[in-house]
Amino acid sequence: MRRRRGISWALVVALQFVPVPNCATPNCGNSARADPADLVCGVAAEIPGFVARDATGRYEGFEAEFCRAVAVARGGSRDAVRFVPVPNVAAFEKDTAVDLVVGGLTASTTRAMAGPVVFGPVYFHDGQHVVVRTRDDISGLEALAGRPICVTTATRAATTLQDRFAEHGLPLEARVFDDDLQAWQAFERGECAAYSADLVEIVQGYATSSQASDYTLLRERLTLEPLAPVLHVGDADLLRVVRRTLREMVEAELRGDQSVARFGGNYGEIYERTLGARSPYKLPRAENRMARDGGLITAPAAD
Predict the structure, then answer these.
(1) What is the CATH architecture of 128-217?
(2) What is the structure's pLDDT at 212?
């Protein structure tokens, strides 16, 4: 299991995150604060491009950069953050030394109300997409009618794909596998014309592939899943800081302001560096463009 496959935040107390091994690096450790001023950022799952350790043990990715920006916004430096593994929601609820948790967590009102945790502002829009080989010149779902598509039964991806093809009256040939890794590997072997999963899973496939530059993401989005950090429900001060951090990152991009170096860049700069054109994954902005540009990213209202 590489992300939260088949896991629902609806049962918050029972939810088990993907385990993250302990490590001993300058920005990784247990929940005890090396410095009381440090922001302690919990990691629910290591996801390349979002939050994962590089070869040196340093956490990198879009969500890791967001944690560093929050540390700056609360008066520290980009180094004033510690990343720690959080095995499950119950552990986070009990451990107030961990300030917030990231790692591909889908936000919803009902989930947030299921326990003493609260979702922060949405900073990324995930969702189910379809990947094809660029050389096959497939431009849309219609071109995949009757052609094999690799998909897992561990999430709702197969059901969603079936529903979308039925809506358009298209014949679907789904090759189903027990998990996303098996589905991705079958696609890589050429057993399918396409692979369908959430962007988070697609990025993880890209991260293990030597052929990622040969793939194209179709424009059709099958589902939409907003990602957000999780905080303790009583930590109103930190929630305001988190909201202000995202607001400043978004407003800086809207102004064309590249002077937010203290945050590591504006929203677009961080996206492009960790997930987009300047990253190994080359993900298009799509829903994560600014709302004025046809996307869904907006600045949280001022408190």
Answers:
(1) 3-Layer(aba) Sandwich (3.40)
(2) 84
